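Sequence in, structure out.
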Amino acid sequence: MSPPAKAEACVACHGPNGNSTDPQYPILAGQSWRYIYIQLKDFNEGRRKDPLMSAMAAGLTRDDMIELGNWFAAQKQAPNGFKADAAKVAAGSKKTDEVLCPMCHLGGFSGQNEIPRVAGQHYAYIVKQLNDFKARIRTNDAGSMTSVAGTLSSQDIDNLAHYIANLN
């Protein structure tokens, strides 16, 4: 399946086939099409804000967003290359059970529907998103992540990011 025409702009940051090598940009390969669609729609309609992504999504139609979501969902996620600290991975794993992360993100953090796959995502991106939810900078989550992230310490976030980034 060849990439949609609109994907050309996406791969500049998110990498060929959605496998970003820059940790500030999320890996989109293997993400659910519905999650990608909803995030693009939220950027387009101002429910989620980022100077670059809000501008990129502004010109997308509903069909464009669905096409991009389906294309990225069909791509295979590559390993992120992150070297996790074993003690932090163990602490992060324990914390996921404590705050019930698998209830929404599922076992293995594979995600479902509008709940993202976060397994193998970039460490730095995970930390930023958890901090943004905690600080209520990011609020397009119906309150689920903001309430969970609000209970996390900086060490918890670091440990969770080590654990989740380590999953492949």
